[in-house]
Specification:
It is found in: Cell membrane. By secondary structure, the protein is mainly beta. The chain folds into two domains: 136 residues, Sandwich (Immunoglobulin-like), CATH 2.60.40.150; 155 residues, C2 domain (Immunoglobulin-like, Sandwich). It contains five helices and 19 strands. The strands form five sheets. It has a five-stranded mixed sheet with strand order 1-14-11-10-19, covered by helices on one side. A hairpin with an 8-residue loop joins strand 12 and strand 13. The radius of gyration is 24 Å and the shape is elongated.
Length: 347
């Protein structure tokens, strides 16, 4: 049923009620290194003011320096955030979509006490033209609040594949309200098809298996983010948290140039006691493979989502309702494959 299989042990001292602070902190550092978060893209206040006004900017691509340039000129008639004082302190922020985290954000300076700010600033991205043409530019305007949450004032999104690159002139564009999906931090990153199974110790005969086993069958992923014109070279990483050691780490082979890769890879973790299932979390992450660095595409976390692991508060025990239901179904149906289709998210 699968072309590759691997078996490794769930290794850490589960008998201690509270793991040592040293081992716990090193685990957390390792977790953060494999789980990049882009939720900060959505941090802010979206509902306090209505989007209004316009923004003037121009786009250009510098062939010599291989640089995408956004010339932000000015805004007019922005919404007033602080009605008592009749003021807004606006700035402009840009991202390249679909992978906001990869290229990062750019932003202008903050102009205080004005709804008609003038910037005349150039925001620059070092990026190949072929890659740029499969991106979208998201340009948004925000009110800067150093003591609280910044307030969203409006945005515009441009498909760069259809952009007229001979047009280097400054043009005015109306600012639009943010869509509900963006407000909620929902960005489609693909869907993973997989099956999981728990085999309790001794359930297949005397001392067979000698310890409990969690089987994870990664079947395929559909609709991955395409970061290059040639497609995406993807693979899946797997850890059973809180164990982030090399013994816990497994990965599939790389599937090249395919946004719908079929992995058909099975992983078996032994060393599980039944009570471990409420404190452990299976983290599956999908990555785009490149020579110098791998880029995070999305992931899932299978667990009870309680926020706690062996009595310690952890940020990775954050499973969604779908992921929790999937894990609970496995816990209740020993020795049975449970099939699931789960959306990838920006862990």
């Amino acid at each position: 049923e699968s072309d590759t299989a691997s078996e490794i042990s769930f290794q850490f001292n589960r008998h201690k009620k509270t793991p040592s602070i040293g081992s716990h902190s090193s685990d957390m550092a390792s977790v953060s290194s494999v789980s990049g978060s882009v939720l900060s893209v959505y941090s802010g206040d979206f509902g306090s003011v209505d989007a209004q006004g316009t923004v003037e900017f121009a786009l250009d691509y510098d062939e010599k320096n291989r640089e995408f340039q956004v010339h932000v000129s000015q805004c007019k008639d922005l919404a007033v955030v602080d009605e008592k004082k009749g003021r807004s302190d606006p700035y402009v922020k840009t991202y390249l979509l679909p992978d906001k985290a990869r290229m990062g954000k750019r932003k202008t300076s903050v102009k205080k006490r004005t709804v008609n700010p003038i910037y005349n600033e150039v925001l620059r991205y070092k990026i190949e033209k072929m890659v740029l043409l499969i991106q979208k530019l998201n340009l948004s305007v925000w009110h800067n609040d150093p003591l609280g949450r910044n307030s969203f004032l409006g945005e515009i999104e441009i498909d760069l594949a259809s952009w007229d690159w001979s047009n280097r002139k400054l043009n005015w564009y109306p600012l639009k309200p943010r869509s509900l999906s963006a407000v909620n931090g929902v960005d489609h990153r693909g869907v993973m098809s997989l099956s999981i199974k728990y085999v309790p110790p001794g359930s297949l005969g005397p001392k067979n298996p000698p310890s409990g086993e969690v089987h994870i069958w990664v079947k395929d992923v559909k609709d991955l983010l395409q970061l290059r014109p040639s497609g995406v070279d993807s693979f899946v990483k797997c850890y059973v948290l809180p164990d982030t050691s090399k013994k816990s780490y497994q990965k599939t082979r790389v599937i090249k140039r395919d946004t719908n890769p079929v992995f058909n890879h099975t992983i078996v973790y032994d060393g599980f006691h039944t009570e471990d299932l409420k404190d452990a979390c299976v983290e599956l992450t999908v990555w785009d493979h490149e020579k110098l660095t791998n880029h995070f595409l999305g992931g899932i976390r299978l667990g009870l989502g309680t926020g706690l692991s062996y009595g310690i508060s952890v940020d990775w025990m954050d499973s969604t309702q779908e992921e929790v239901a999937f894990w609970q179904e496995m816990m209740l149906a020993a020795n049975e494959w449970i099939e699931g289709l789960l959306p990838l998210r920006s862990l």
